[in-house]
Write a structure and sequence with these properties.
The complex is a heterodimer of chains A (219) and B (258).
Chain A (H helix, E strand, L loop, with lengths): L2 H7 L1 H26 L6 H13 L1 H32 L14 H4 L1 H19 L13 H9 L2 H28 L8 H27 L6
Chain B lengths: L2 E7 L8 E7 L8 H14 L22 E2 L2 E2 L21 E5 L8 E3 L2 E2 L2 H10 L19 H11 L6 H5 L6 H12 L8 H14 L10 H5 L7 H15 L13
Parallel strand pairs in B: 1-5
Antiparallel strand pairs in B: 1-2, 3-4, 3-5, 6-7
The chains are: A mainly alpha (219), B alpha+beta (258).
Chain lengths: 219, 258
């Protein structure tokens, strides 16, 4: 077996890939959140941002394909590992117990799958527009405001952002272990920065549907 | 004190198992958990019933032979020790305790609370050793080891191979066990020549034996009677990355001397 296949075939190698692709996803959601925040600077600013991204079509597609590959690898590894993990304990404990593991760390596969579903909805909602009641190509401000004026959509987004926070909270810290990047000098800083970035992404993103529903952002 | 036990009874891996209820009306708080089971077994034998089978040896918490799950926690509720050093004073009068064996595909059940942990031995056989020169033993302190490295190696070497990490992990992963040996030998100069080959061979065996993968939730370290640190898992991952991407393969030029 070639060394690359051997790496892919091992549980440790798959976790390394999950860490790298997860880190790429983490960096992406920070950038995406920062882009979203322009909605507070007015219709012209966020729409100009949308046009700016689409003018760089070549670069946009490179990023899109890279992200798609990262998500694909992340999900594929997660599902394969899930099968291995389930097979590793054929008889479950009749009386299970937990000492210290956080709920976020124990539900990564569930939050992950729900986020994958959310991702498809989010694309259909704001990129393809087929799940949007009043979609207008490249009129990002209009799409955001009219999209979030629909209360069930807003609630769904807010719930999914909480799930994203749980997923990033555990994943953001665990990926440093999977990559072997653990050092007593940086342990606390890594934890603090990861949680701070996670909270920033979650709170900033949740603020948009809340601002629309509260009437702060309107057409 | 009065304790109600629900003990997993299973004749062998093929037959189905179930909890058997045993009421213990007179348990001394000073008994160890295994002594309490010894008395139960004495009563069972006197009644011509099969005693509860469980593994044990030193009963001092240092050998790694004993171990089962008490109310969902490997080695029971006492931190940093094995079930043989868990004492009944840790429980309250009238407590109901459910005893289950380590549950993992890689640990086939032998009987009741006894499982076969030879999968861990096979992981060690794959690379958990050093190649040392034969002949007279070298002088002490001939090879210098920095104090922080000594300490980290010793902390990892404290692993007694009981399998509680596998039992406590929701994925039945053996990462903490494997990484403890990788960390022990990887921190010492004697472990360097085989360091990257070791991690590759041990991980391959770990996967082949049917253990699950690590999700870094930390239950293994919390259940570990020797409190092996999660940092050892990070070290194994780092060494595995180096073994895959940095280690040079053996290249024979065919132009050696002679």
């Amino acid at each position: 077996m070639s060394w690359t296949l051997k790496f892919w075939d091992s549980t440790v190698g798959k976790k390394v890939l999950m860490a790298l692709t997860g880190a790429a996803g983490f960096v992406f959601v920070i950038g995406h959140m920062a882009g979203n925040m322009q909605v507070y600077l007015g219709r012209d600013q966020i729409n100009a941002y949308a046009h700016f991204l689409h003018e760089k079509a070549g670069l946009l597609w490179v990023v899109r394909i890279a992200l798609l590959a990262a998500v694909g690898l992340h999900v594929l590894s997660a599902l394969q590992l899930q099968l291995i993990k389930r097979a590793a304990r054929p008889v479950r404990y009749q009386k299970p117990g937990i000492i210290q593991a956080t709920p976020a760390s124990r539900t990564m596969i569930f939050t992950g799958l729900l986020l994958a579903w959310f991702l498809l909805y989010h694309l259909a909602h704001f990129t393809w527009g087929n799940a949007h009641p009043a979609f207008r190509e490249l009129d990002a401000y209009n799409n955001i405001v009219t999209g979030f004026q629909h209360v069930p959509s807003s609630v769904f987004y807010i719930v999914c952002m909480v799930l994203l926070g749980l997923h990033l909270g555990h994943g953001g810290n665990a990926l440093f272990f999977s990559l072997g990047l653990v050092h007593p000098k940086y342990r606390q800083a890594v934890r603090a920065i990861t949680y701070a970035l996670m909270l920033l992404v979650v709170i900033a993103n949740i603020s948009i549907p809340v601002a629309v529903l509260a009437g702060v952002l309107k057409i | 004190m009065r304790i109600i036990l629900h003990v997993w009874r299973q004749k062998n891996a093929q037959s189905p198992g179930k909890f058997e209820r045993y009421e213990r009306p007179e348990v001394s708080p000073d008994m160890s958990f295994l002594e309490m089971l010894d008395v139960l077994n004495e009563d069972l034998v006197n009644k011509n019933e099969q005693p509860v089978v469980f593994d044990h040896d030193c009963r001092e918490g240092i050998c790694g032979a004993c171990g089962f799950v008490v109310n969902g926690i490997a080695h029971g509720p006492e931190d940093g020790t094995t079930v043989c050093q868990l004492h009944m004073r840790k429980f309250k009068d009238g407590d109901e305790l459910y005893l289950e064996p380590w549950r993992a595909k890689a640990f086939p059940l032998v009987r009741d609370l006894l499982v076969d942990r030879s999968a861990l031995d096979r992981i060690i056989q794959a690379g958990g050793y050093i190649t040392a020169p034969t002949g007279t033993s070298v002088d002490a302190n001939n090879i210098l080891v920095a104090k922080p490295d000594q300490e980290r190696a010793m902390d990892a070497a404290a692993c007694i191979g009981c399998g509680a990490c596998v039992a406590a992990c929701p994925n039945a992963s053996a990462m903490l066990f494997t990484s403890a040996k990788v960390t022990h030998l990887g921190n010492l100069p004697q472990g360097q020549p085989e360091r990257l080959d070791r991690v590759e061979a041990m991980v391959a065996t770990m996967d082949k034996e049917g253990f699950g993968s690590c999700t870094l939730i930390g239950e293994c370290s919390a259940a570990c009677p020797k409190s092996i640190s999660m940092d050892s898992i990070a070290r194994l991952n780092g060494d595995y990355i180096r073994a895959t991407f940095v280690k040079r393969p053996l290249e024979l030029s065919g132009q050696g001397s002679g």
